[in-house]
Structure formats: C-alpha cells, structure tokens
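Progress narrative, Year 2. Work on Cytidylate kinase from Ilyomonas limi advanced from sequence curation to structure prediction during this period.
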Amino acid sequence: MQRIIITIDGYSSCGKSTLARQLARHLRYIFIDSGAMYRAITLYFLRSHINISSNKQVKKALEDINLEFYYNEITGENDIYLNGENVAIPIREMLVSEAVSEVAAIKAVRAFAVAQQQKMGEQKGIVMDGRDIGTAVFPNAELKIFMTADPAIRVERRFKELYAKNPNITLEEVRHNLEMRDYIDSNREVSPLRKAPDAIVLDNTYLTIDQQLKLALGWVKEKQ
Ligand code: C5P
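Result:
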C-alpha cells in the first residue's frame, strides 16, 4: 500500500495529537507533534532570557538549539529532546503555553522548524499535526484534515487534562490561554492558521475518540 503524508491542523485543544498518534499507530507511520517543537524552542528562549523582539538574539539562540524526537518505550510517546534533554514534561507547563504563540509567530523560528519538519516527511509514512502543516509544511500532502470543536468543549477537555497534573489551575486561565493562542495563531503574518482549500473538516464536538479514528481511517483508505 502506498505510504502517504497526513496533515492535521486546527485550533488549540481540538484533539489533533490524539488523532494523529492513533492514526500513526494503526498505519505504523511516524507521528510528529509539530507544536512540541515550537514549545521546546519557547522553553529554550525562556530559560535563556532571549528578548524575542531582537532578531539578532533570536537567530543566535536558534543556532544553539538542537531538537530530536525519540520513542519512549515506557509511555509509548514520541518524546522531544532539547539539546539532549527530554523536555516532554516542561514544555506542557503554563509558562510555555503563555509564551509559545508569540515565539511561533517569528519568521526565523518558523523557517527553522519548517525546514526540519519537511525533512522528516521526505520518506512519507508520516502523520504531523499543527497549525500550518497542510498549508505551508506539506502543501502536497495526500490527506489533509482540519479539526475543529465547540470552544466550550475544548476548554473543558483541556482543563480536565491540565487539572489532573496541577489542581491549582482554573477554568478561566485555560479559557484565556486557548483564546489568546487561537487569536495569535490565526492573525500572525507568517503562515497563519487556515484550513487548506483541499482539507477535510472534522468537527469532533459530538464524536468519541473511536468514532473520529474510524472516520479518518476511511479517508486514509481512499487516498492510499
Ligand atoms: O499544538 P500545540 O497546542 O501544542 O502548539 C503550541 C503552539 O505552537 C500553538 O498555539 C501555535 O502557536 C504553535 N504552533 C504553530 N505551528 C504549528 C504547531 C504549533 O505555530 N505547526
């Protein structure tokens, strides 16, 4: 069967990574969470106190960043490594979530991440989720999915996930963060979040995880 490229884009907390991970498992494809790359870059910038309005500082910092994904046998996840350190946990902290969209809007940062993402797709057999994967990273991908869900449901799902790790978090904080990221991601100059004209819309407001997987596997079959 022909190995294809599958892109999954959409708003924050629509369950893109959940679907991407499951598709990759079923098809024995590579799964890449491109958001983890922007989060790892942001973590580095925060730790190194990079002034993101300084092009010079940003470019110098990018030269010092090495990102790699390694499969974690215990969790079954593809963990991201920043200069040799597994940062899968710290990149999910609120401090990173609050800064990531500003960092991801920087042209040099996007060029840095997109070049690596395109390299990962050279052999095909990949599912990548993000905001610009079907529009900018793999505009010729065989299957493009654009995910969406009711905003209140997205906030609730995200809140439940974060609350399990940090009981101090409030629903309001989560709502504010999702709204802010969606706004910045949709309005930035470089590759804003858009549905690619040839993407299939998947609204999972009323779908279970199994139902959405079934739907997506059907679309894959048609493209293989
Ligand atoms: O996917 P996740 O929500 O973890 O992504 C974190 C942030 O990274 C997004 O809010 C967005 O600002 C940025 N991002 C991006 N382009 C991508 C993936 C993520 O700009 N392809």
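The longest helix spans residues 171-187. The pocket of cytidine-5'-monophosphate is lined by residues 12, 34-35, 38-39, 100-101, 104, 130-133, 181, 185 (CB under 6 Å).
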